[in-house]
């Protein structure tokens, strides 16, 4: 086959143009009259973001009605957020992928042909076998994340690859997790261990809780504030959280590390740090004190634009409430390329306040001791994502999307095939728009498993339509959190159209690849039942209750004067990191000033809005109604310079000449004059997303300058600048 063209799915492969009004009215907004039909409830775990709230799906006469939270779920406290309640929209979306698609060439043109599952799976398996025979199975890269990714990790490890790169590693949490791990020997975890309900002081640094909506977290945040916690928000944008704060610090973008060092300087020079805690648990204090000596508030003022007095007052406020002061670790930490060092500074500041392991700070997490299903051992892969890093990023714990994508370009590329599960790479990975196209030209196989005709499907050889989370079983939820619990996702509906659950797709591929011994069960519910039986429960019980809590085995907080051994090499909190020094990195965080904006350009800041998660929800018909498009936030002074009014359409052009789609202007003092802000996930270019196509602008395409964090391979995305194009190009 010749060069792989980007294929736009034609209308013939999709469904009806509009969502039937009967279905829309039946999914939450208007409950059916009581007693009018047979109501059934089925347990689920929400898939609309990664917070994994447990809920109940209500159907009436098998038709969708509503999804509500499971009151027994301590993690979500029995509630769902807007997006979770709108989860039925994912199920009902008329633009869903409906049948397997195969790229074919006819009359010199490439197009997708709708095929049977047998044909699609045979094709994918044959190509995988060919790659394994000619190059080795380790030459297939896997981009997958979320609950269902476990099925494909299992399949592909059994096949013989170890090259996995989920976007929620390099584009999200990598730097934070490694920064805290190097300091405490433990990570923060996917469900943050922040004890905000009991905090007396909460500090948010570029973390816009409330707009960035992780349900349980927002509830504990609100509870903390309701109980009178002081809130300090550091953000160049007046976020919703800033509106609740006692102190809003509108910092110059990219200078957060300077502020963190200055706060440490105040705590140490004024003797406000937790001396007993540091003496008992930490190592390297004297070196730290020496390191931050010159980082006075006056020094930080010149970097951050924040008055020395406000830096001192906020440091004292934190110390006054310690150890119940939480300097929040954030989540999406791929900012400026020195992100592990910023995360280390956050970790160290918390140590000075004595908040790790303390009430109102960070609690200790626990999960249920749930045995793994007894699969045979996986074969050892001849190479893995570490080899792709070629000696760089020594503290990485997963593959970097950008690296694996770049290593897939050209005849001699390391990778010959891709399997992509639940990841829309063109929108979630920055700086690779062209690289993905080049890789698509040289790869022997691209398999995409998705529910929607997203941008990534246009690059596929074979598209395998997964049913939504409301139509399938997935692995039991068992994460490290405050209260150990298990939760079940099971089908509330029959699979729609010709879509299939991820576990079924993985198993069918496995059977065709001769991997029968890794799939000794017929239905994934057998695996779940086996695991549940090991902890005294059963599938039957969980189908009835949805969530089961287990008693903790260890304490939530450190005991008073407890001799705790931190799982670091020294057994202590490492303020000075020998591990970093041994690899030639700064053992304590060192500040580097951000790149200056070119004249006439503004720093591009992006973030979340409560109605949407990344690009996955913007076509959801229920959530589209809540927020159909994004806007670009512009300060009134900047707007005056450019003669822009609220609601005007502009395009944004970045420092490398990349031009965005049209986007409306929102003139607001909530953003400073040096930056603009837009919500992530909009401006789709996939035509079959009939609601979201070309509505709003996409931040990712404007992020062409990616600064790799040398410690983790995390992709710094905030060193990009844009200007306005007011006449449409
Ligand atoms: P989405 O854009 O939501 O984000 O990265 P992604 O998870 O790739 O794409 C999810 C894909 O999964 C979509 O194609 C969707 O249709 C598909 N999908 C949804 N549900 C299912 C399902 O049940 N089964 C299957 N098979 N597919 C499903 C997120 C990543 O993005 C993260 S975690 C962060 S923190 C980063 N945020 C971010 C940002 O803020 N700005 C920019 N510019 N880039 C970012 N990239 C990162
Ligand atoms: Fe779903 Fe909202 Fe919970 Fe995320 S926070 S899992 S979208 S209910």
In short:
Among the domains are: 198 residues, Dimethylsulfoxide Reductase, domain 2 (3-Layer(aba) Sandwich); 124 residues, Barwin-like endoglucanases (Beta Barrel). It is an alpha/beta fold and 729 residues long. It contains 24 helices and 25 strands.
Taking the sheet with the most strands, its summary is: 6 strands, mixed
Quaternary structure type: single chain
Strand order of the largest sheet: 5-4-14-13-12-6
Q: How many separate helices?
A: 24
Pick out the low-confidence regions: 11-30
Instruction: Provide the CATH superfamily of the domain at 188-364 and 562-582.
Output: Dimethylsulfoxide Reductase, domain 2
Structural class: alpha/beta
Rg from Cα? 25 Å
Task: Report the count of strand segments.
Answer: 25
Fraction of residues in H or I helices: 25-40%
CATH top-level class of the domain at 188-364 and 562-582: Alpha Beta
Could you tell me which ligands this complex binds, including any ions or cofactors? Answer: ligand MGD, iron/sulfur cluster
Q: What's the average pLDDT?
A: 95
- Net shape: globular
Intertermini distance:
35 Å
Percent of residues in β-strands: 15-25%
According to CATH, the fold-level topology of the domain at 188-364 and 562-582 is Dimethylsulfoxide Reductase, domain 2
Query: Which CATH-level-2 architecture of the domain at 188-364 and 562-582?
Result: 3-Layer(aba) Sandwich
